[in-house]
Amino acid sequence: VAVVAHSGKSLDGGLDELRRRITDEDVGDLLWHEVPKSRKASKKARRAIRDGADLVLVWGGDGIVQRCVDALAGSGVPVAIIPAGTANLLASNLGIPHDLAAAVRIAFHGARRQIDLGRLNGEHFAVMAGVGFDADMIADADRGAKQRLGRLAYVRAGLRHVRGSLTPVQIEVDGTPWFRGEASCVLLGNVGRITGGIPAFDDARPDDGWLEVGVATAGGTLQWARTLGRMALGRSDESPFVRITRARKVDVRLAAPTRYELDGGDRGEVRRVKARVVPGAITVCVPGDREPAAASA
After folding, report:
1. Taking CA 26 as the corner, what is the angle to CA 96 and CA 56, rounded to the nearest 5 degrees?
2. What's CA 19's distance to the chain center, in Å?
3. Which of 25, 159, 179, 192 is a good FRET partner for 106, with 20 to 30 A between their CA atoms?
4. Chain mean position to CA 278
């Protein structure tokens, strides 16, 4: 068993409690790796595989989870998420609670589920990729705000960017022209709920072999308020400022350099993104019948 942990994240009794609960499971040699930043986790995850890990527990938020699933994609080694981050979007979409004891039970006694990943510009993502408004909001929230405000950091950052400009965009899905016009945001989703828990893709499943594709044309406070309100209370595709489809391959061309993000992590600016779905690329530990009864209490 291997642990790849973001040393700056906390949950319940912290890493000492995590180590104790793993020891209670009578594991053999425990491979333990702590990193100060998410981007350093990829190397540790690959090392865990080289050292013979049969299970990798990832401690932290969506950033370190993304780095680890990117490194472990195709390996067949199960990943167990211990959601110690701010948003924990993949964990919440998979039903993994924000509770250390329950998450460890799921790691050792839960079910195993193969899920898809997206691959964009050479990197895998498990939750979403965003270009434009979504990425600007996340980059703004990253500037120390998440540690101070938690999820409210995304709300505050979003309010600052609703007046952002629209960018001319061309989108092809599976080789066919699908959208051409001005847009404030392009989202590619692997699950239903995205930043802030917003239900952006109502019909999404992480194991259906598809990526959800959404484009938002909202500009200004009023249009964004209507869009987010419709997403929260109804279906996203009922908004006049949202268009949604599904695809296995997506090609997005932008008229100007635009910021993009992967699973809540800022990746800088680009003028083009190419993405595709990778079916069944990673195995994750999820709640299931093998858990002890106490797990549901």
Report:
1. 45
2. 25
3. 192
4. 15
pTM for the model stands at 0.86
Q: Which two tokens stand for residue 61?
A: 């938020």
User: Residue 93: is it exposed, middle or buried by C-beta count within 10 angstroms (0-12/13-18/19+)?
Assistant: buried
The first and second tokens of residue 207, run together, are: 């194991």
Nearest to 195 by CA among 257, 104, 263: 263
Report residue 280 CA to chain centroid gap.
16
Do the beta carbons of residue 59 and residue 19 sit within 8 Å? no
> In this predicted model, what pLDDT tens digit does every residue of 9-43 receive, in sequence order?
999 999 999 999 999 998 988 999 999 999 999 99
